[in-house]
Amino acid sequence: MEDTIQLVWTRFLRIWEHVVDALEKGTGFQELQSKLREELDGLGRDILRSVIEAADQELRENSSARRGWVVDQRGHEKELLTVFGPMRYSRTYFKHKASRARAYLADRMIGITPHQRIDAGLKAELVERATDQSYQKSGAWCEVKSWRVSGQTVMKAVHSVELSKRRRAPAVAARRCVPYLFIQADEDHVSNQRGPRWQPRLVTVHEGTEGPPERRRLIRPRRFGGLYQGAEAEQLYEQVWNYLDATYDLEQVQVILVSGDGAPWIRRLCEYLPGAQFVLDRFHAPKYVTEATGARHGLAAELWKALHEADRSRMRQVMAQALACAETATQRERVVESRNYFERQWDGIRAWKRYKDVWPGCSAEGDVSHVYAPRMSSRPMAWGREGVDHMSRLRVMCANGESVNEAYLSQHGEALRPIRVARAYIHRVRSQITENRDLPAVLRGSLPAMASSNCALRRLLKSILDKNRLATAG
Fold it and tell me: Would the N or C end of the chain have less CB density within 10 A of its end CB?
């Protein structure tokens, strides 16, 4: 195994040579960045290889670290794609004396499964990037483009994230006391690869709004979402309730206002939460007012007045007038449809007047546009069921400020195991670090670059060494 400190300093010198080249030959700043990135990634790969091979050496030389296993073959090479790029390392093939099974114990130690070609840390980063861009672009994110993975590989990594639909509510030190709680709910409409559009759902709990009218912000928003089709919706309601119960002192809450377009699943959410009241989202009302009254602005004003005052009989009278004014069968159908919609949502319309000094309005459409649409519905792409479900829940995680990277790695515990290497290796590296703290004494006479014909490089290294000597002396 190479001397670790010498390995680092060899790379260090190469990096500074590129800096000097930039100064002497006029290398562009972008080209310099690319070369530095390449060298730094190479240093990362060399260090990783050194550590893995040191762990493999410990397994070979210390039989107590591999009880029951004996050396079968040495020097088997493997290539692994890491965050630093492709890395090749050598490890030993072991055989179990009793079961006759064979395995690369060093691979097991660092969490590499048989036939694995991509490191778990890199996959976690790919999954995180996939929440903002296509699978294909996520696989080719490396600036140098010296390596890439396929969009199919990224998709499989996304699908492998286990996001339970019964997620626990985040722990809080003490439950909050607020007089009102607000919930807004809506769904996106995402293209399906084989049939009707998918409708991933989004529920946002918050404590109201703050800020100027043109830049209103939700107070302490917490989002929940996913596909949740059919009976699965019960799991979404359970998540929302568990969060409310864990985060707020619900005995102090006067009312929970649930806003939306009145879809059946939103109504059921309102029924699931004790003491919740439904409020119709004002975003959808104008559509039905226009459908009923058309270009008759006076009739539209009368209808709006009836809605704001929660005057049901007056609403029916205006609808009767609109029906009488309809000239075609299509117009009559629209009037009837609008009247039926307001009849079904009348409790939500009545809440406009009852809670006008409390209800901050509903931004469910904007929330869907912000959380889901940029990745799933605003681009010409189609999704399968598993893909839209996973992506919608990953997008919700990001909107809540949670780390997708950490969520992926937490499910791959084998990648988080501590690496065991020989104490002698650790002692030797620590000794090298201690001995090399006085860089001028160690490196002045041993660095070939100090005898280089490149005057700029010599001056640069001498300056670095002198500054290091002064720093260590102080």
Answer: C
d(CA 45, CA 82): 8
Question: Which residues constitute the domain of residue 409?
Answer: 119-177+185-249+259-267+366-416
Helix (H) or strand (E) holding 333: helix 329-344
Q: Is-contact 202 261, C-beta < 8 A?
A: no
- DSSP assignments along 258-269, one per residue: EEES--HHHHHH
* Under 8 Å between Cβ of 70 and 42: no
Sign of CA dihedral 123, 125, 131, 133: negative
Number of domains in the chain: 1
Do residues 359 and 351 make contact, with C-beta atoms less than 8 angstroms apart?
yes
Instruction: Give the integer Cα–Cα distance in Å for 278 and 61.
Output: 70
The Cα 396–Cα 320 span in angstroms is: 44
Question: Is residue 89 a part of any domain in this protein?
Answer: no
Q: Is residue 153 part of a domain?
A: yes
DSSP β-ladder status, 255-260 and 276-280? parallel
Phi, psi at 341, each rounded to 5°:
-65, -45
Q: How far apart are CA 421 and CA 56, in angstroms?
A: 8
Q: How many residues does the chain have?
A: 474
For residue 78, what is the enclosing H or E element? strand 69-82
Residue 148 lies in a domain: yes
Q: Where are the alpha helices (DSSP H) in 29-132?
A: 29-61, 105-109, 120-130
Going residue by residue through the chain, which has 474 residues, state the pLDDT in tens, using 9 for 90 and above: 446 666 677 777 777 766 666 666 666 777 777 777 888 888 888 888 988 998 898 899 888 888 999 999 999 999 999 988 899 999 999 999 999 999 999 998 888 888 889 988 889 999 999 999 999 888 887 655 567 888 999 999 999 888 765 566 666 778 999 999 999 999 999 999 888 999 999 999 999 999 887 788 999 999 999 999 888 999 999 999 999 999 999 999 999 999 999 999 999 999 999 989 999 998 888 989 999 998 888 999 999 999 999 999 999 999 999 999 888 999 999 999 999 999 999 999 999 999 999 999 999 999 999 999 999 998 778 899 999 999 999 999 999 999 998 888 888 766 566 777 777 777 777 776 676 555 555 555 555 555 556 666 566 666 666 655 555 555
Q: Give the CA angle between residues 265, 270, 271 to the nearest 5°.
A: 95
Distance CA 331, CA 93 (A): 78
Q: What is the value of pTM for the model shown?
A: 0.80
358 phi and psi angles, rounded to 5 deg: -115, -45
Q: β-strand 222-226 against 201-206: which pairing, if any?
A: antiparallel
Q: Is residue 24 part of a domain?
A: no
- Name the nearest CA neighbour of 85 among 46, 124, 36: 46
